[in-house]
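User: I'm preparing a small set of examples for a lab meeting where we compare how different chains pack in three dimensions. I only have the primary sequence for this one, and I'd like the structure in token form so I can line it up with the others. Please keep the answer compact; I'll paste it straight into my notes.
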Amino acid sequence: MATATLLQALGDAQPMPSRGWFRWPHVHYCIGIYFCTQKEEDSPQFALMSALATRAAQLREGDAVALSRAIERHAWAIGHRWLPSLGYLAWPYLSPSARGAFLAGLSASPDGQDVLPPFPDPPWRHPDFGVLPGSCATQDWVLRRLGDCHLDADAACEIGCQAIRSRNEPLLRRILDCREVLRRPVDRSDPWPFACRPDWTGITAHLSNRCIDRLLEADTALYGTGDRSFTPLILQAGANPDLPIWRLERSFNELGCALAFAVADGQSDAAEALIAAGASPAGTDFGGRNRPVFEAMRHGRHALVERLLEAGARLDVGQPPPIEARGQAEDPGGPRLQPAAYLFEGRAGGTKVASILSGIVPLKSSYDKASFFAGHGQGGSRLTMLQAAIAGGATPHHLERWERHGLDLSPSAEEISHAIGCGARDALRWLLLKADRSGRGWAAIREHLQAKSAH
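Assistant: Understood. Below is the structure token output for the 455-residue chain.
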């Protein structure tokens, strides 16, 4: 295909919509790459772009107008598909908005390349563009060029999210200076089908699509990496400290607030910043009241438990399971992952525990206790507040103290089974003796454990 024909075809082609991690920040970044690129390799637009890129050095100055028309329509895709030479050649002729879109696509190289190669000498040089860049970090070049462009909410959100992902504070600070743009909405992608809940439209209605809130959502997705959080900076720029978040992953999904995820991932500085900015220590209705303190107990962050309880959290209110789920067995034919929201940790051994303690220790139904759904790589299950405390290594001293804040210490069969599985023998003995002062319940469980050990 002749170059002029190629330029005309690309100029007439339908632009690719920008998409990627910034459309729904999540922990497993590779999923975002998958959803960005799975259909682009075979697209006619990408074929035209790639063909044109191979001829970049042969373009004549007379091609500048046609090239700029084509790149104007496809600026984001040119950057995103790692064809920077085309964007560079057309840059002096692009509108400020197209330049911003090009920088946004370039900030999230789908091939994971972090360094721009030296640009080839162009067949023309525009006097307003200045010196050719040599090899440099992609995001450093993006930062240098932000003053020459206009960012809409999508571009600001994508560059900001990528700055967060790569822990590039100077670039993030530059984006956070765009206060007016940060208040604007950014479209959210639909949930990917293999990790979706049947009621997803009712859930997404509660999520925020403001650009600044999407940046906080991106930061929470990276809490578990152990890197320093940018949450204080993002909050100063106006993010909602009680931001509702649906952490949607390949094999599980959880609902919660920013504070709950900060606590769960051990980001104590982020948690303090959220509380200082006005986040409710008890969490929000989205994902269940008191989820932050539940996560603190589950992960053994006992100092944070005390901090949240002092600030007003309670241990007697959780995330109620669906009413129709009471006593429901897992339905293999039901919606994917949905039954896990009904089933309690420790259920496998709960029946045996109930038979051992029948007539000795009164057991409470787990459905009558404060509990939350906790996701993991195999889907997840529900945990009561007491199970969370035991999983986090709570001692009898902790349990006795937390009872004053509403922790229900009347055991259920699943809770006893879970304590056995966790090897929490001291806590288990204390709970059973508290429920049955005769000691018969603890003796029966101890005999059961000795028999299991013998086999």
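A couple of notes for your slides: The radius of gyration is 27 Å. The chain has 24 helices and six strands.

User: Perfect, thanks.
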